[in-house]
């Protein structure tokens, strides 16, 4: 299987130049699937900390580059929505956040904020009378007690080191949300209404921002906290 990806056919979420050369690196297996951006693209093409794949390999061998609190040495490891990227040698920390046009953007955050990450609940299965398994947007799962009311569409903040849930944001009218797809990708506003559609049609939500009100499909909406809006948090 090829280890290269044509730039012109790369996912729209990849923050790369399309016509500078024919190929770029292909994302390896990871929690975000084809939507994830290879770490090499982030450190070479976006941040420009290295100029080649060879330099990237050398930098990764220093074991000072972390994704969600875990040391990463594979340059093809995918980075995706809401991941936390840390460069310990530089004392720099970023959250992967949606930008206009559907591209993934690196938002600077503090070292304290980098200890936990946001996830959206996309599935829910009861494992036993006392526990349920939650499927998250990044392909991972989390087992929790059946006593807590978690629903599909809710968001969680979990500690990178322990995996413990430290915050739970309910998907409901009045919640603060960000849009991660469609023509309004990257916008942040308040969820005004949820219109449930019958059959296989996607539910439609109305979102109010500081400057406008618009509709989008439910799957593009993620509940966030106020601290995700401010820079440097």
Can you walk through the features of this model?
The protein has 233 residues and is mainly β. The protein folds into three domains: 4-111, Structural Genomics Hypothetical 15.5 Kd Protein In mrcA-pckA Intergenic Region, Chain A (Roll); 115-169, OB fold (Dihydrolipoamide Acetyltransferase, E2P), CATH 2.40.50; 176-228, SH3 type barrels, CATH 2.30.30. It contains two helices and 19 strands. The strands form five sheets. A five-stranded antiparallel sheet has the order 5-4-7-8-9, with no helix packed on it. It is globular, with a radius of gyration of 18 Å.
Features:
Structural Genomics Hypothetical 15.5 Kd Protein In mrcA-pckA Intergenic Region, Chain A; 39% strand; globular; OB fold (Dihydrolipoamide Acetyltransferase, E2P); 233 residues; SH3 type barrels; mainly beta; 5-stranded antiparallel sheet; 2 helices; 3 domains
CATH topology of the largest domain: Structural Genomics Hypothetical 15.5 Kd Protein In mrcA-pckA Intergenic Region, Chain A
**Element pattern in H and E:** EEEHHEEEEEEEEEEEEEEEE
Overall, the morphology is globular
CATH homology-level superfamily of the largest domain = RNA-binding S4 domain
Q: What kind of sheet is the major sheet?
A: 5 strands, antiparallel
CATH architecture of the largest domain: Roll
Taking all Cα atoms into account, the compactness measure Rg is 18 Å
Structural class: mainly beta
Estimate the helix proportion, in percent.
under 10%
N-end to C-end Cα span:
40 Å
Low-confidence stretches: 5-9
Order of strands in the sheet with most strands: 5-4-7-8-9
Total beta strands: 19
CATH C-level category of the largest domain: Alpha Beta
**How many structural domains in the coordinates?**
3
- Number of alpha- plus pi-helical segments: 2
Q: What is the strand content?
A: 35-45%
């Amino acid at each position: 299987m090829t280890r290269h990806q044509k730039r012109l056919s790369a996912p729209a979420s990849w923050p790369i130049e399309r016509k500078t050369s024919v190929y770029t690196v292909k994302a390896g297996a990871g929690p975000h699937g084809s939507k994830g951006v290879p770490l090499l693209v982030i450190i070479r093409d976006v941040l420009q900390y290295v100029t080649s794949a060879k330099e990237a390999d050398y930098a990764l061998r220093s074991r000072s580059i972390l994704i969600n609190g875990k040391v990463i040495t594979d340059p093809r490891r995918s980075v995706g929505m809401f991941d936390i990227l840390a460069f310990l040698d530089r004392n720099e920390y970023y959250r992967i956040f949606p930008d206009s046009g559907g591209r993934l953007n690196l938002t600077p955050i503090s070292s304290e904020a980098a200890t936990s990450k946001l996830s959206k609940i996309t599935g829910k299965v009861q494992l036993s009378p006392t526990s349920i398994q939650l499927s998250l947007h990044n392909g991972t799962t989390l087992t929790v007690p059946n006593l807590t009311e978690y629903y599909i569409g809710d968001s969680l903040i979990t500690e990178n080191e322990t995996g413990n849930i430290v915050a739970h944001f309910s998907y409901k009218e009045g919640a603060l949300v960000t849009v991660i797809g469609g023509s309004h990708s990257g916008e942040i506003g308040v969820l005004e209404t949820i219109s449930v559609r019958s059959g296989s049609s996607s539910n439609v939500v109305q979102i109010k921002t500081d400057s406008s009100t618009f509709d989008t499909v439910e799957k593009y909406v993620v509940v966030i906290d106020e601290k995700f809006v401010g820079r440097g948090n």
